[in-house]
Amino acid sequence: MSTSVEAEIVLPPPTPVLTHTTRTPPSERDPLDSFFGYTFSASRTYESRYVAEALPAYIEDHPPTYARKAPEPLTLARYLFKFGFLFPPFWIMGAWILFSPLRIPSDVTDPEGQWMAEKSEIERQHILDRMRSAEIRWARRCLWAIIVFILVAVAGIAAWAVTRS
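RE: above sequence
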């Protein structure tokens, strides 16, 4: 015979934290410091105080999550942009992606063999949208890189031709 006793755990409020602040009456502030902000040398001369300040309480039951931005998907255009510095025609191939549509792999004959079958249709569309936006971003970078490369090459050839004659 076991009885379960549900005990609610009550946590004490957070303890105050000592913070270092510098307070200066407006009459003592230098106009130059007021315009540009306090400098390190000026802040050392003012009287500093330690003020007890309580930490903010969490409104929710759990602390907030500090999530990083989701990593950008690795795409072909990204690799073509990076390797274009070694072989510039890769930038042309990367820029060509701007004119080609992204399609789901066409091996969807049976439900188990389709692309990302474990995901819902909305999740798959979200993944495709993220991949397409990343692909376009890197393809535009390839286009700009090849334009700059051509302009620098033309300017270099023109400068060489002018100095040669």
